[in-house]
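Repro:
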Amino acid sequence: MENIQNPEMINIDGKAVSLHDFIQQYRQLSEDVDTLKKVDSKAKRKFEEEHSLKPFQAELIRLQNYLEDQHKRMIIVFEGRDAAGKGGTIRRVTRYMNEKHYRVVALGRPTEEQRTQWYYQRYVAQFPHAGEMVLFDRSWYNRAMVERVFGFCSEKEYQDFMRGVVGFERDLVRQGTILVKLYFSVTKEEQARRFESRKTDPLKQWKLSEVDLQAQDRWDEFTDVKYEMLKRTHTIDAPWTVVRSDNKFLARLNAIKVILKAAPYERLNPDLDFTVDSEVVVSGSRELELMEEQRIRGGKFTG
């Protein structure tokens, strides 16, 4: 590279290029390199995270074998706000499992006929048989959360549900069903960030619903019904486990650990660390204590 007659021009491989254009191209290339480094670093981190889940996903297969051998039924309820990470966790839980022995159930709005039936009827129709696991991506707790906030049920229907669900779940457990209730708790800021990602990413836009668009505006209402739900339905027979899900990987890993610890199967790898992270997983009773502390300090619930 050497200067030619015009001091503002330089010669690169026999081609005259303005100094200004050269500097701009250099800056753009530097930005591109930095972007690629970030993308590569993010891809590497995601790969390592997914790889670290595999030993626990292998344990889930072992858990499936236990359910089949012992003719046990297992139900896992995934609840929480929109964009809290329920779907992503379900995909990691089921990724390597035997498809013959599990089902993911995500029911849509009830039909007119179903509206005339016993509320639990369409959920009970999806319950597992012996040796099977069913994962509910939202469950009968729709009545305690979404239906309550948006007025999709009457006050009487809501109160009937809240009075009856404890006995309903007690019967399930007494008759041998392993019931795991997970509530995914995301912060308002992280939920907003995920919604924005859904708006701009064509691969995620299908996830954005009318209910999603109102979730931020109704944040406090959802928080109030969350508190009421935990207070009235967290029981010894069917306790809630709250999973902090701002960090998707930690939420997925710890949710899997909770599921694995729910059944006395013989572990494939007893040397694995099955201890849950206390910063990520809290009991329903502890979450209630934390929410009550928030209300005392600030006058209202915030989480």
